[in-house]
Hints:
Elements: H1 2-35, H2 38-80, H3 84-88
Amino acid sequence: MGVFTKMRPPFTCLRKLTNLLRNWKKDFLEKCSKAFDDTSENYWKEKYLAEHREKEDYARKIGQLAMQVDWLKKKSEESLGPGYEDKFTPKPFKE
């Protein structure tokens, strides 16, 4: 009886491994067409291009806002004189 109990765990592990491999093979065979399908490649290309366009739009918007801030600073200095920031902008800490 001691011999059978010592041999049982490897067979149990082998059975579990066999079931696991069988399940992986079944899943792969069901879904392998997706792995080699051109539509998935097109999907990822479109997703990449959409993200790239979105980043370009954000960069363009940041550039536009930076130019507007610079223009406002220039016009404020022209109309209010140098040091206008000290009159209106509270400083949270001393420099």
